[in-house]
Design a protein that fits this description.
The structure holds two protein chains of two kinds. Helix content of chain A is 75%, strand content 4%. Chain A is mainly α. Chain A folds into two domains: 60 residues, no CATH class; 233 residues, Orthogonal Bundle (MetI-like fold), CATH 1.10.3720. The radius of gyration of chain A is 25 Å and the shape is globular. The relative contact order of chain A is 0.12. Chain B has two domains: 52 residues, no CATH class; 206 residues, MetI-like fold (Orthogonal Bundle). Chain B is built from 13 helices and no strands. In chain B, helix 6 runs antiparallel to helix 9. The two termini of chain B are 37 Å apart. The chains are: A mainly alpha, B mainly alpha. At the A-B interface, helix 1, helix 2, helix 4, helix 5 and helix 6 of A face helix 1, helix 3, helix 4, helix 5 and helix 6 of B.
Chain lengths: 318, 279
């Protein structure tokens, strides 16, 4: 909103009136801009862009890690060849995609419902917002330990409840399907509130006159939601979904702490697989290849949704 | 208004309120479970009783005395405060320039920054690990401060840029006409206006640092340099997971950030919704 008003202000005020010769001043300010931006860009490039490129290089080499260093012993495709023929990698890819799809869809549906409810809440909305922020700010490792305790086979409350409603007592984190569902519930508990806040913010900013018109036309609540609210909310939802998807591709903390990727490899995500290859097996070439494959997934996601990015930048009036 | 006809407590019973209560319980019950379990006596953690009875602080003393949670807490504070300060300094300069100065190539820069802010950490840890090993930086504070600064900068730049965009330009021109240098203009005129943005960016960065796990696990495995998430994850042995201690430590870890987020919830929400979104 602030950015939007700035845009309008910009149009009204026009180009800033500068003292002295305008073109010289403009150049000077542009140079100033890059000087201001350079330190941040250098740090970011050194610690993110350079290593990403280097990961690609490592994944295309035979990497030899020795006691006090490492060497790249020649160009090879063997790391990727290994991945393509490995059921481990395929399973991790499938699990990551499946987990992402289910959690994002569930979080979006529940989050939107919560947002719609909160929008109608007259009193205490501030308190509810504060409450929603607690899971968001929770350390994921703690979230994982908490749910592992809830699922515990001997004294966990989930086990007790399942028993009480006659579902027997499966070893939740020790059986593939229940383990996956268990992870998803932990994720949904932590992230749904975040989605709700985003959607609520979008809801609050919707123009009120559209609703008045709909009400005058005698549109039902359901019709209004489906044909007016949802289409207007689309940009907000698209952005939230995109960030959630890209984030979920990097899934690591929850499975690492709760299941260690198990039972077997049932909850091994791409990030867990890469970590295990790199730091448990010290296989830096294949590990880098797995990491690059996860990064490629994110990059593809980014490119597919570049329009959303563009809208994001454009909207702010660059 | 539409419930005016109902009297007494009945007027509070409607769909919206019921849904709100359900939502609140959905969030609160696991939290209650966390806090209640942390106060159970260490030998009664293995029972599914709903109330800690007797109430015991044994887990808390255990976390600090039996385990080294004090060290982890100190490490987290040092790393997070330093990284947040660096992010705010570098981010303010860059955010100001990208928001207000006439530079070419702003658009690609901003898109790349946005992409980096969602890039998976796992894509960089292998080269960073080897680099830090060569520089003898593993198990040190810079081993986390440097990557945290770099990783959380793009998002902070975005938040700050959005705030800088919203400040009226006339203010700055006054400074410019008076002949103040750009740096001075930023410091004395623009920065005070952007204070809410700094709060927002600061809280986001601090929370991100406080909760980060993968890099902390990889770069600082030794006991003396572990941060809270790594410390808590490593409490468990192979056969016995000391849940009481874990939850006591968790409560201590969650409370500062919870209080911070609660006090500054307006800034957090505005940051979550001012365009750039990240969980």
């Amino acid at each position: 909103m602030t950015a939007l008003s700035a845009d309008i202000a910009d149009k009204i005020v026009g180009e800033p009136k500068l003292v002295g010769r305008p073109d010289v001043n403009r150049k000077r300010l542009a140079r100033m801009g890059w000087i201001f931006t350079a330190p941040a860009l250098i740090v970011i490039a050194a610690v993110t862009i350079f290593p990403i490129v280097y990961s690609v290089v490592m994944s295309l080499n035979n990497v030899n890690v020795t006691g006090n260093g490492f060497s790249l012993d020649g160009f090879t495709f063997s790391n990727y060849n290994l991945l393509l023929h490995s059921s481990l990698w395929r399973d991790a890819l499938v699990f990551t995609l499946y987990y992402t799809a289910v959690t994002v869809i569930v979080e979006l549906i529940i989050g939107t419902c919560i947002a719609l409810v909160l929008e109608r809440l007259a009193a205490g909305r501030g308190w509810m917002m504060a409450l929603l922020l607690i899971p968001w700010s929770m350390i994921t490792v703690i979230n994982a330990e908490l749910w592992a305790y809830i699922y515990n086979g001997t004294y966990g409350i989930a086990d007790y409840i399942l028993n009480a409603i006659g579902l027997g007592s499966p070893v939740i984190l020790g059986t593939p399907t229940p383990a996956i569902i268990g992870l998803m519930i932990a994720d949904i508990w932590k992230t749904t509130p975040f989605v709700a806040i985003i959607v609520l913010a979008g809801l609050v900013m919707l123009p009120g006159d559209v609703y008045e018109a709909a009400e005058m036309d005698g549109a039902s609540g359901w019709y209004t939601f489906w044909h007016i609210t949802l289409p207007l909310l689309r940009p907000t939802i698209a952005l939230a979904v995109m960030f959630r998807i890209l984030q979920a591709f990097g899934l690591f903390d929850l499975p690492y702490v709760m299941t260690g990727g198990g039972p077997g490899t049932a909850t091994t995500s791409l990030a867990v697989l890469a970590y295990d290859a790199l730091f448990k097996n010290l296989a830096f070439g294949p590990g880098a290849a797995v990491a690059v494959s996860a990064a490629l997934l994110v990059l593809l996601g980014c490119l597919a949704t570049l329009r959303v990015f563009r809208a994001q930048v454009g909207q702010e009036g660059t | 208004m539409r419930n005016r006809k109902r009297v007494g407590w009945h007027r509070y019973v409607n769909g919206v309120n019921i849904a709100v209560v359900v939502t609140a319980l959905f969030i609160l019950i696991p939290l209650y479970w966390l806090i209640a379990s942390s106060f159970k006596a260490p030998n009664s953690i293995g029972t599914a009783s709903l109330n800690p009875n007797p109430l015991s602080g044994g887990n808390y003393s255990d976390a600090f005395v039996g385990y080294d949670f004090g060290i982890y807490f100190r490490n987290s504070v040092i790393v997070c405060i330093t990284a947040t300060a660096l992010v705010l300094i570098l981010g303010t300069l860059a955010g100001y320039a990208l928001g207000r100065l006439p530079m070419r190539g702003k658009f690609p820069t901003l898109v790349i920054l946005l992409m980096i802010s969602v890039f998976p950490e796992v894509a960089v840890i292998a080269p960073l690990y080897l680099l830090m090993r060569n520089l003898h930086l593993l198990d040190s504070y810079p081993a986390l401060i440097i990557p945290y600064t770099a990783f959380f900068l793009p998002f902070a730049i975005w938040i700050l840029r959005n705030y800088f965009l919203g400040i009226p330009k006339e203010m700055e021109e006054t400074g410019r006409i008076d002949g103040a240098s750009p740096l001075r203009t930023v410091w004395t005129i623009v920065l005070p206006q952007a204070l809410p943005g700094l709060f927002t960016a600061g809280i986001f960065t601090f929370t991100a640092c406080w909760t980060e796990f993968l890099m902390a696990l990889t770069f600082n495995p030794s006991n003396n340099y572990r941060t809270i998430p790594v410390g808590i994850a490593e409490f468990g042995g192979n056969f016995n997971v000391p849940y009481g201690t874990i939850f006591a430590a968790s409560v201590v870890a969650v409370v500062p950030i919870g209080v911070l987020v609660f006090i500054f919830r307006k800034f957090v929400i505005s940051g979550l919704t001012s365009g750039a979104v990240k969980g």
